[in-house]
Design a protein that fits this description.
Helix content of chain B: under 10%
Radius of gyration of chain B: 13 Å
Radius of gyration of chain A: 14 Å
Largest interface: A-B, 30 and 27 residues
Order of helices and strands of chain B: EEEEEEEEEEE
Shape of chain B: globular
Largest sheet of chain B: 7 strands, mixed
Structural class of chain A: mainly beta
Order of helices and strands of chain A: EEEEEEEEEEEE
Distance between the termini of chain A: 41 Å
Oligomer: heterodimer
Helix content of chain A: under 10%
Strand content of chain A: over 45%
Number of helices of chain B: 0
Number of helices of chain A: 0
Distance between the termini of chain B: 37 Å
Number of strands of chain B: 11
C-alpha cells in the first residue's frame, strides 16, 4: 500500500531564508514521487518529480528534492524563500509498477513567508 | 497545449439536489481522474476513467458517479447532495493513467451545498 506523511502541517520562514518541507512515504512497490503546489483558489501545479533516475531532482522556481530510499524520505528544499512561494505543498506517491495511476496525497504543508 | 479545464468554476446547490461537473483534459490525454478536496479530509481520490471505462474507484458512496466520452471529456455527478459534499472538486488528466506518471490538474470546481 502507498501512503505519504508530511511531517509539518505549517512551516513559516522569512523571505531570503531556506525552506525545508519534510515528507516520508510508504510504498510496497517502486515509487514515483512528486511535489505539487497549490496557491489559494487554484488547482495543483507540479513542482518536480522523481521516477527512478537521479535521486536529486530539480524542479521549477528553484525547488529541489532528494529521494532517500534508506530513509523513505523525499524532502523539498529551496535555498532562499520568496514571498510568492507562500502556498500549500503536497507530497504525492504513485506506484510505478501499476497499470492504475492513482496518486496518494499527503495532508499538505502550508508555507508562510514573512517579509 | 491548453491545460485541463473545468466548468463551472463555482456552484451553489441546495441539499437534496444533484449536480454535474465537467472536465476537459489536455489534448491527447486519455486518462481522467477526479479528486475531492476538503479541509478536514484533504485530497481524496474519487475515480479514474480511461477510454470511457472506469478503471479505479475510491471509497465514496454510490451518489458519486462519473462517465467519460469518446473525446476523453469527463463528467462527474453527485446526486442527493449533502452538506458534507461541499468541497473543491479537482480533475486531473494524464496520457495513459498508468502508475508512476504525473497528472495535470485543472483549477477545480468549488461546490457549496446549503
Amino acid at each position: 500500500a502507498q501512503s505519504v506523511t508530511q511531517l509539518d502541517s505549517h512551516v513559516s520562514v522569512s523571505e531570503g531564508t531556506p525552506v525545508l518541507l519534510r515528507c516520508n512515504y510508504s510504498s510496497s512497490y517502486s515509487p514515483s514521487l512528486f511535489w505539487y503546489v497549490q496557491h489559494p483558489n487554484k488547482g495543483l501545479q507540479l513542482l518536480l518529480k522523481y521516477t527512478s533516475a537521479a535521486t536529486l531532482v530539480k524542479g521549477i522556481n528553484g525547488f529541489e528534492a532528494e529521494f532517500k530510499k534508506s530513509e523513505t524520505s523525499f524532502h523539498l528544499t529551496k535555498p532562499s524563500a520568496h514571498m510568492s512561494d507562500a502556498a500549500e505543498y503536497f507530497c504525492v506517491v504513485s506506484d510505478r509498477g501499476s497499470t492504475l495511476g492513482r496518486l496518494y496525497f499527503g495532508r499538505g504543508t502550508q508555507l508562510t513567508v514573512w517579509p | 497545449k491548453a491545460g485541463v479545464t473545468q466548468t463551472p468554476r463555482y456552484l451553489i446547490k441546495t441539499r437534496g439536489q444533484q449536480v454535474t461537473l465537467s472536465c476537459s483534459p489536455i489534448s491527447g490525454h486519455r486518462s481522467v481522474s477526479w479528486y475531492q478536496q476538503t479541509p478536514g479530509q484533504g485530497l481524496q481520490f474519487l475515480f479514474e476513467y480511461f477510454s470511457e471505462t472506469q478503471r479505479n474507484k475510491g471509497n465514496f458512496p454510490g451518489r458519486f458517479s462519473g462517465r467519460q466520452f469518446s473525446n476523453s471529456r469527463s463528467e462527474m455527478n453527485v446526486s442527493t447532495l449533502e452538506l458534507g459534499d461541499s468541497a473543491l472538486y479537482l480533475c486531473a488528466s494524464s496520457p495513459t493513467g498508468t502508475g508512476g506518471h504525473e497528472q495535470y490538474f485543472g483549477p477545480g470546481t468549488r461546490l457549496t451545498v446549503t
